[in-house]
Write a structure and sequence with these properties.
This protein folds into three domains: 56 residues, 434 Repressor (Amino-terminal Domain); 135 residues, Rossmann fold (3-Layer(aba) Sandwich); 130 residues, Rossmann fold. Helix content is 43%, strand content 16%. The protein has 14 helices and twelve strands. Helix 1 packs across helix 2, helix 6 crosses helix 14 and helix 11 crosses helix 12.
């Protein structure tokens, strides 16, 4: 593959463009080129633009190994994801949001997935032991998350998608799941629904505690009754959710309201409702979170609450970069509300 350069200049096939290449093509010194790419204040804007244009045209990227040797930095942010996030439809949105922020920086994103059967602390230990990232973004947060404790002990900058209960300040972005649980019950109660079930996260995660607390408070305040969904969470495969919903409607046929912590789970449960001869919006009302504006096209009869996962990605990227730059963790905490407002916890 040949890289094109201005004024008819090109690189030999397979040759990696370097600072020297840009210096030769622009007639500038290597030091000037390097400082121009770093946006040094003593380099003119015209020179910076000329250097950047050539760098873009020849496909120049800083050599990470060289950067690490010179600065001790990798220019890498690692996003450690539980593959259950994909079941909930979150992965692509959070990656997109993070990438939007990193595009204007020198940082690159590496996604490190792990499955539910693996020890979630292993990828964190690997990054710490190898020094392969300058910062980490974690998801699927537990109240006493051992990964967070380890990162604090080893002083590696990080941000979490969710909150802990350590009592130690750290950067995070979260959705207000307690407000969501409460708001969902309120919407169903306003439609006259009184026997309400909820498909929740696994109890091991912090956002289960938040969502469950809001749900119970809503039941109490609006005079509704709890109906249990057994043996399924938002993290389970759809066939597991489907079977649990089928059992729910067999054991509790008078269930008239269902809250879902994920849009994929809502689709599975709505299929069960149809399969049992009922209709969403007539026999049973449903409320579901959604990470993108799709529910109104796929299942418009389901009441939806938007959780902006792309915004979460952007806030998490800004938070971890802020921590790398020395910003206090208390200044890097935010919560997205079900009404669409973003609140900074400082």
């Amino acid at each position: 593959m040949r890289s094109t350069a201005p004024a008819g200049l090109s690189l030999p096939t397979g040759e990696r463009p370097t600072l020297k290449t840009i210096a030769f093509m622009t007639g500038l010194g290597v030091t000037t080129v390097s400082r121009a790419l770093k946006d040094a204040p003593d380099i003119s804007q015209e020179t910076k633009e000329r250097v950047r244009l050539v760098a873009t045209q020849i496909g120049y990227h800083p050599n990470r190994a060289g950067v690490r040797l010179r600065t001790g930095k990798t220019n890498v942010i690692s996003l450690i994801l539980n593959i259950d996030e994909e079941l909930m439809g979150l992965t692509s949105h959070i990656v997109y949001g993070i990438s939007e922020v990193l595009a204007s920086t020198n940082y690159h994103l590496i996604v490190t997935p792990y499955n539910r059967d693996a020890d979630p602390i292993f990828p964190v230990r690997y990054i710490l032991d190898t020094g392969s990232a300058d910062g980490v973004i974690l998801s699927s947060i537990e109240p006493q998350d051992p990964r967070v404790k380890l990162l604090i002990e080893r002083n590696l900058p990080f941000a979490t998608h969710g909150r802990t209960e350590f009592g130690v300040a750290h950067p995070y972005h979260d959705f207000d799941n307690e407000a969501y649980g409460y708001e969902a019950v309120r919407r169903l109660a306003e439609r006259g629904r009184r026997r309400i079930a909820i498909l929740e996260p696994s109890p091991r995660f912090t956002f289960f505690q938040h969502m469950h607390a809001g749900y119970l408070r809503g039941l109490r305040d609006f005079g509704c009754e709890q109906v249990p969904i057994r043996d399924a969470t938002v993290h389970d495969p759809l066939h597991v959710v489907y079977q649990a919903a089928m059992e729910l409607l067999r054991e509790h046929p008078d269930t008239d309201g269902i809250i879902c912590g994920s849009s994929s789970g809502a689709v599975a449960i709505s299929s069960v409702i149809a399969a049992t001869g009922r209709q969403v919006g007539r026999d049973i009302d449903m409320v579901s979170k959604q990470p993108a504006d799709l529910m109104r096209f796929i299942r418009p009869e389901i009441m939806s609450v938007f959780e902006d996962i792309r915004l979460a990605g952007r806030e998490l990227a800004k938070a971890v970069i802020g921590r790398i730059e020395g910003v206090a963790p208390e200044e890097l905490q935010s919560i997205f509300k079900p009404d669409g407002t973003l609140v900074f916890e400082r």
